[in-house]
Amino acid sequence: MLYPQRFTQFTREHADSVAALLCGLLLFLGWFALHLGALGLAFLLLPAAYVIGGYESAREGLTTLFKEKELDVDLLMIVAAIGAASLGLWRGEYHLIIDGAILILIFAISGALEGYAMQRTERSIRSLMSLTPDTARVLLQGREEEVAITQLKVGDQIVVKPGELIATDGIILSGYSTLNQAAITGESLPVEKTVGEEVFAGTLNGYGALQIKVHKPAQSSLIVRVIRLVEQAQTEAPPSQEFIDRFEKGYAKVIVVAGILLATLPPFLWGWDWETTIYRALTFLVVASPCALMAAIMPTLLSGIANGARQGILFKNGAQLEKIGKVRAIAFDKTGTLTTGQVQVFQVFPASEYTQKDVLKAAASVESSSEHPIGKAIVQAAGDLDWVGAIQVQAIPGQGIVGIAQEQQVIVGNAVFVQQHVTNLPEELRQMAQSLEQQGKTVVWVAKNPTPLAKRGGEVMGVIAIADEVRAQAAATITRLKKLGIEQIVMLTGDNEETAHSVAKAVGIDRVYAQLLPEDKLDVIRRLQQQYQTVAMVGDGINDAPALAQASVGIAMGISGSDVALETADIVLMADRLEKIAVAMHLGRRSQAIVKQNIVVALGFIMLLLVGNFLGNINLPIGVIGHEGSTVLVTLSGLRLLK
Fold first, then answer.
1. To 5 degrees, how large is the angle CA 312–CA 318–CA 324?
2. Which of 309, 480, 519, 603 has the fewest beta carbons under 10 Å from its own?
3. Helices marked H in 318-370 — which ranges?
4. Can you give the pLDDT at residue 563?
5. What is the rounded CA–CA span in Å between residue 496 and residue 540?
6. What is the mean pLDDT of residues 571-586?
């Protein structure tokens, strides 16, 4: 039973390709039967080729005709093919039936290719829902009970334990903890939260237990608003797609009307006989069929997609390859995009009598007992050094941590906390810390007290600057984009102003929007689109999903990107290499140039064949050859992008 199921699944997933393959096989067998003089067999095989190859186009064409009252290229092609077959039967020139079948085969192949190229990866937002648990721990009459999220009411009090996801937006009633909000706000460092502050659904609780009061319905939480924004942005069709649809319908109408006029007026205007008139009209439908025009676009885009894939650039559809070549403005998320998103020790500044190793070893001895991300970064930086873990370690939330290492008290924390244990803070280190904080760095002070019982007998060993590392290729990428003529480059982030401007200055971005929520990023993209029309957005987090969906071209980081960012984006940089953005834009611009060249060639052939048909210098087989030849020519031209 397994093989039939696999076969059924394969034919369902590749229905267009299977239809084109069967159409081609039946066409060949029918042609061979005609060649052998087996007319009965040929008349059995060729109609089957017409039906199998043209069924989908006929269905779509008739659906459009009856439901939307519009003519499209699908129906036009079927009419031309059936007309050629009818003329072949009428005149006994059976090769015309072959010509009609070839037209259907070409169109079937084109439809199959288009299906593969334009099959957009569905922007599923189910992964967003995994960020919020299905239930919450609610306090009811002093007891904790598991309640479904959908049953939460405003005023309910929920308990969130260390390491758990927060189920809904709320206000902290009691407790203190650090929350990882990177998925929602894009902040690179966990944020400390205490009584009276708001927390968001989908954020990850740190080391402290929290009691939270629900202050809005679960359906109004920030994470749910992100989902709605993504859905809304996805439903907005790009103007280029609307233009292509209008052009196709208008072109089909013109050709049909012209075909009808050509089939009826010449006997009255020029004295043609009806056989010649109908023959010329059918030839007109064949040579005017826009196969070459359609082939002018898709092979080019397919080649560009294949080229990009070889270079680690995943275009989810051909339209995005076109649009990225038209981008005039581009917005970058900061955390995880321009930066690595990993908290690291930026630099160590020791006091005069200590070394950098002394400072790191002392800090790591107490931070090894901490679960705080900053503590983990310090321990990682001191990994190769010889240090011993401290004992009697005590963490003071929001301030610092102390412990006993080698019979000395080690104090690590912010300036206010450390100042409680030392005589004074060295002025040079105080100025250095102030400068680092202005650059957006997080400063950790390290001190030791030889006499742990003495309240202020310690001395400062140094300071450690913690930062989110800027990607090595970020600055070069921004420079390259400016050289390509991008008119506006901006940075969007949920981080504070100082950190944002520090990173922007390092990479060469002049315009910065900081402290943004997902809907704020969406608003910025919309404003940019009003000014620059075609706007790209580069991001990696769930907080970037609405902006990625709204942007003309959404670009996601493939390795560091969240699932929803990857599903929402139009283009994915599979290796997180920012410099590939410039490569993608170059591919887009080349594809535009080749498409324009192909359109000129396709229209030129059509005009030449139309004139030849009107003057009576070509017959239907020559028209088919010219039609198919122009299609092959522009297809080969499009394949140039494979290089």
1. 70
2. 309
3. 318-324, 356-367
4. 58
5. 19
6. 84
**Helical (H) or strand (E) element with 31:** helix 15-36
* CB-based burial, 289-302: b 16+ in 10 Å, e otherwise: bbbbbbbbbbbbbb
Q: Which helix (H) or strand (E) holds 615?
A: helix 580-615
Of 485, 486, 120, 113, give the one whose Cα is nearest residue 301. 113
Query: Which 3-state string (H, E, C) describes 434-463?
Result: HHHHHCCCEEEEEEEECCCCCCCCEEEEEE
Q: Which of 57, 79, 85 is nearest to 255 (CA)?
A: 79
If DSSP states are collapsed to H, E and C, what string results for 159-197? EECCCCECCCCEEEEECCEEEECHHHHCCCCCEEECCCC
| Phi, psi for residue 354 in degrees, rounded to 5 | -125, 165
By the 8 A CB rule, do 208 and 398 touch? Answer: no
Q: What single-letter amino acid sits at 31?
A: W
Q: Please give the positions annotated as active site.
A: 333
- 278-326 pLDDT, tens digit per residue, is 777 877 877 777 767 767 777 777 778 777 877 778 777 777 888 898 9
Per-residue model confidence (pLDDT) at position 453: 59
Q: What are phi and psi of 8, to 5 degrees?
A: -60, -45
CA dist 172 and 157 (Å) reads 9
416 contacts: CB under 8 Å, gap ≥ 6: 399
pLDDT tens digits along 197-219 = 888 887 888 888 899 999 888 77
Query: What percent helix, strand, coil does the chain show, rounded to 5?
Result: 55, 20, 25
Evaluated on CA atoms 417, 418, 424, 425, the torsion sign reads negative
In this model, does residue 481 exceed pLDDT 90? yes
Q: Does pLDDT of 369 surpass 80?
A: yes
Angle between helices 620-638 and 95-118 (to 10 degrees): 20
Residue 335 scores a pLDDT above 80: no
Are 447 and 421 in contact, with CB atoms under 8 Å apart?
A: yes
Tokens of 263: 């089939």
H-run or E-run covering 246: helix 239-264
Instruction: Kindly report which listed range (54-68, 133-147, 178-192) carries the lowest average pLDDT score.
Output: 178-192
Which residue in the block uniquely carries the two structure tokens 């659906």? 63
Query: For the chain, give me the number of helices (H) and strands (E)?
Result: 25, 22
Question: CA angle at residue 557 from 546 to 232, to 5 degrees?
Answer: 15
**Mean pLDDT for the chain?**
80
What lies within 8 Å, CB to CB, of 527 at 6+ separation is none
- Cα R_g (the chain), whole angstroms: 34
- Please identify which residue in the block is written with the tokens 């997080």: 442
* Residue 93: both structure tokens together: 């020139």
- Cα–chain center distance at 99: 42
